[in-house]
Amino acid sequence: MLAKERIVGFIGAGNMAYGLIKGMRDAESNIKIFFYDPDDERTKFVKNSLRVNALSSIGEIVENCDTVFIAVKPYSVESVLEVSAQTLNNFIKGKKPPVFVSIAGGIKIDFIERIFDKMLKDFIKQSHPLKIFRVMPNINSLVGKGMSVICHNVNVYKEDACLIIKLIETSSKVVSADEKYFDAVTALSGSGPAYIFLIAEGLIEAGVKLGLPKEIAKTLSVQTILGSAEILNSNEFSKTSTKELKDMVTSSGGTTAYGLAKLEEGRIKYVIDSAVDAAYLRAKGLI
């Protein structure tokens, strides 16, 4: 549990924010959560589903919260930062600005700092240098099984980082990494759930094609993926390579060997590598 109450605000309440809010609400009694979303229908849905309070503007979130998550589409980040800066400029002297945490894909800390540097009054910049985090979560936070990677600017202290990590750990496993890795992170764990969903879709359809009822095919496919992930993540098999695990399922001339041969014939590892590489290049803005 957090040592003292934190007031956490979200600007934007899409799927990524929803998962983070849900985790914080369920795990910590010491967190008060507010959010703002410009879409009235989305606001009503999140408010009723998660029982959290909605505020009426970006400015209200920045003014009333000590941690602010920027959870909007990348093209909206600049305008959110400009409004946030205008609000900070109206702070009375001595009032600390919130910690900012961006989960907007592709938005670098340097970009956030440059917008604030351009917009903020000198007394704000000099008295309280802004603490800024960048986080790449994934959609699995919706069920408390997310993967988030985190980095921050030079103004952040160890205790600040520990706090933000604790907040995000309510819905995700958290890894700290240098920002230079974030395009690769986006391509792998950020986009990764969609790759797994596609594989699950293929398994389910294959089962149905063989005559299984769809619900049974889905149950078999989903549980197979869940169980395989548990083995990969278990202490018991932590030193066992993926090849060794694969060999444990495979007997010479058996059904698994024939299935794997067909996957290798289709160059499945090449296809996966190509998919992750394409996402990486897109994240870097090269395609």
Note down, in words, how this protein is organized.
By secondary structure, this protein is of the alpha/beta class. It has two domains: 179 residues, Rossmann fold (3-Layer(aba) Sandwich); 92 residues, ProC C-terminal domain-like (ProC C-terminal domain-like fold, Orthogonal Bundle), CATH 1.10.3730. The chain contains 13 helices and eight strands. An eight-stranded mixed β-sheet has the order 3-2-1-4-5-6-7-8, with helices on both faces. Helix 4 packs across helix 5 and helix 9 crosses helix 10. The longest helix is centred in the C-terminal third of the chain and has 20 residues. The two termini are 44 Å apart. 31% of the residues are buried. The model has no long low-confidence stretch (mean pLDDT 95).
Write the topology of this structure.
Blueprint: E1 6-11, H1 15-27, E2 31-36, H2 40-50, E3 53-54, H3 58-64, E4 67-70, H4 77-89, E5 99-102, H5 109-119, H6 122-127, E6 132-136, E7 146-152, H7 158-168, E8 172-176, H8 182-190, H9 192-209, H10 214-233, H11 242-249, H12 255-265, H13 268-283
Parallel strand pairs: 1-2, 1-4, 2-3, 4-5, 5-6, 7-8
Antiparallel strand pairs: 6-7
Helix pairs in contact: 3-4, 4-5, 8-13, 9-10
Keywords:
8-stranded mixed β-sheet; alpha/beta; Rossmann fold; 14% strand; ProC C-terminal domain-like fold; 54% helix; 287 residues
Task: Please tell me what the overall shape is.
Answer: elongated
- How many structural domains can be distinguished in the coordinates? 2
CATH superfamily of the largest domain: NAD(P)-binding Rossmann-like Domain
Q: What does the largest sheet look like?
A: 8 strands, mixed
How many strands appear in the DSSP assignment? 8
What's the arrangement of strands in the largest beta sheet?
Answer: 3-2-1-4-5-6-7-8
The CATH first-level class of the largest domain comes to: Alpha Beta
The average pLDDT value, as a whole number, equals 95
Level-2 CATH architecture of the largest domain: 3-Layer(aba) Sandwich
